[in-house]
Design goal:
alpha/beta; TIM Barrel; 2 domains; eight-stranded parallel beta sheet; three-stranded antiparallel beta sheet; about 40% helix
């Protein structure tokens, strides 16, 4: 990993986004986003370190696995350890010992999920902590101040994430709030070298998605995200939301779909011009005993693997698969040994980061279409998931 503490010096200004290769038949592109702590090759998957750690992994694990950027969360870090502690510790990078770039979510999605503990106003959201019920207020000014203290390399605008399904009038009002808050976010002081991304909302409504994207693009952000997808809608509706959200965004800026981690859906989103992803899936399912492979997911904890001497994934060269059997990993998981979660998390994260590397290579080699078709044949042999 390259960063300032390792003697790396920026060749281009933070915020520069180079498009290295574009697919001739789709919107897929391989690129490079320059941050204050080094370049990020795209398409990229960002491991989620919500509470200043990627669960079960050390920073040196992430470096060894090839992670170039990780994600932290404004809401959770505001509550614990709090900004006084974070400021005293020199910001999030020093606090958690991660030397590479960090993107911080603004907390909008977490506040959205607290529907029984929050009240949305024109200036932000009043909410009670899910931990102890303490009162907090988070709006564009507060969210940017927290991210400035965290010192993240990419800060996300504070937005309102709407549910699915959603009434069109509510969605229209919500988009207006998101746009107003985005403009306020741009006015706030930033940490040195900090980039700011706007977030496209609009639910399932094409006109609202396009309006939000156009108005955010006119504001001139360093990058753009598509929010409010993968919140319970059918897969075809979700992918349409991604397409609607990216269509009106400037091509010379990175595009990020928030909270999306299904491999097939990430590939389809890349085909629609998306560059960045994050999701808790690889770490969360590992804690429940599920492994991700090139052929899909399966439960390592299942009884059929009790004496299975094969690695978690045949042909995988991660530390877990190079040294241990399914039988051993299953045993650790079933007796509650921490090492079982750690090994399976290492494998799952390796698979996700390798998946993105393979996708970048396919784009650069002009074979993304073939790679995409082969992936779909394995992960979606019956086509897109839809809901009747």
């Amino acid at each position: 990993m390259a960063d300032a503490s390792m003697g790396w010096k920026s060749e281009l200004l933070p915020g520069t986004f180079e498009i290295i290769k574009e697919d001739r038949h789709t919107g897929a592109r391989a690129g490079r986003l320059w941050t204050a702590r080094g370049p990020v090759e795209t398409p990229v998957f960002m491991p989620v370190g919500t509470q200043a750690t990627v669960k079960a992994l050390e920073p040196r694990d992430l470096e060894a696995l090839g992670a170039s950027i990780i994600l932290g969360n404004t809401y959770h870090l505001l509550l614990r350890p709090g900004m006084e502690v974070m400021a005293a510790c020199g910001g999030l990078h020093d606090f958690m010992g991660w030397r590479g770039p960090i993107l911080t979510d603004s907390g909008g999605f977490q506040v959205f999920s607290l529907n029984k503990l929050r009240k949305i106003t024109e200036n932000g959201v009043e909410f009670r902590s899910h931990i102890d019920g303490a009162k907090f207020f988070l709006g564009p000014v507060e969210a940017m101040a927290v991210q400035r203290t965290l010192g993240s390399d990419i800060a996300m605008c504070f937005d309102e994430c709407m549910p699915y399904p959603c009434d069109e009038q509510y969605a229209c009002n919500s988009v207006s709030k998101t746009l107003s808050w985005a403009a306020q976010c741009l006015e706030q002081e930033r940490a040195p070298g900090q980039l700011v991304f706007g977030i496209v909302q609009g639910g399932e409504y094409l006109a609202l998605r396009e309006r939000c994207a156009r108005e955010l693009a006119a504001m001139g952000f360093d990058g753009y995200a598509v929010g409010g997808v993968s919140v319970g809608e059918p897969e075809d509706v979700m992918l349409r939301g991604v397409e609607d959200g990216t269509r009106c965004l400037p091509p010379n800026r990175p595009r990020y779909v928030m909270g999306l981690g299904d491999m097939f859906q990430m590939c389809e989103s890349v085909a629609r011009g998306v560059d960045m992803f994050d999701c808790v899936i690889p770490t969360r399912v590992a804690r429940h005993g599920t492994a991700y492979t090139r052929k899909g997911a399966y439960p390592v904890k299942g009884g059929s693997y009790k004496a299975d001497l094969r690695p978690v994934e045949e042909g995988c060269d991660c530390y877990c698969c190079s040294n241990f059997s399914r039988a051993y990993v299953r045993h650790l998981l079933n007796v509650g040994e921490i090492l079982g979660v750690r090994l399976l998390t290492i494998h799952n994260m390796h698979r996700y980061l390798e998946f993105m590397r393979e996708m970048r290579e396919a784009i650069n080699a002009d074979c993304f279409g073939e790679w995409r078709r082969e992936l779909a044949a394995v992960l979606r042999p019956n086509g897109l998931k839809t809901r009747a």
